[in-house]
Amino acid sequence: MRPWKSTRIRTASTRTSTPTRITDIIAATPRGESERRLRLGVMGGTFDPIHHGHLVAASEVAAKFGLDEVVFVPTGQPWQKSHKLVSKPEHRYLMTVIATASNPRFTVSRVDVDRPGPTFTIDTLRDLRAERPDADLFFITGADALAQILSWKDVDELWSLAHFVGVTRPGHELHDMGRDDVSLLEVPAMAISSTDCRTRVGAGNPVWYLVPDGVVQYIAKYGLYAARPEPGELSPVLSGSDDQARTE
Q1: Within 13 Å of residue 197, how many CA atoms lie on the same side as its CB?
Q2: What is the separation of C-alpha 88 from the centre of its chain, rounded to a whole number of angstroms?
Q3: End-to-end CA distance of the chain
Q4: Dihedral (C-alpha) 246, 243, 147, 122: value to the nearest 10 degrees?
Q5: Are 48 and 198 in contact (CB under 8 A)?
Q6: CB 166 within 8 A of CB 146
């Protein structure tokens, strides 16, 4: 029988020496695999393209929270506040599969890609909860997106579906929102952004070591993010209230 063990997790309601207020919670692991519920991380994002910041963030959260698996969920139609273009969902899904293939703890879900209409976090979590009723969900998102959570669709139900983990670059301050079910975690690699990667590709600059090698090759093969994208490689994003910017 496996003994009980406790892990100290820093979350968004207690003070530390850093500017961000955080709290300590105790995550207990019960004796015996049969008694233990699966702990499933949910890494939502546009992933246009997925980069090492996303992968490091998922790995760090998995380690800190004792997650058994992290499922990456590329958005289907991410609503944005301003009109912009994003790569087709299938491109973003395949880049995510390539980027996560070497880590046995990482998987990729098509729930948002295959669902028609705009993507909302509430629908992501409802679908994953229905697919994995045996799991406790930990939704991982960028700190900037987490700061806007109160404007997300069906926000009251969101709290009941998952524990939210906001990943942020060191020195970025995020107010705690006054909830015990919101955690904050600093991840140095979050200084990398998808926007910067797209800009570098468009300017003809390399993105080696910013994104996984296979993703670099995929971008080159399909001509993604070129200054003049090939017709059909990008699709318009609907304008409106955005609850799915998530992790850039």
Answers
A1: 25
A2: 18
A3: 42
A4: -90
A5: yes
A6: yes
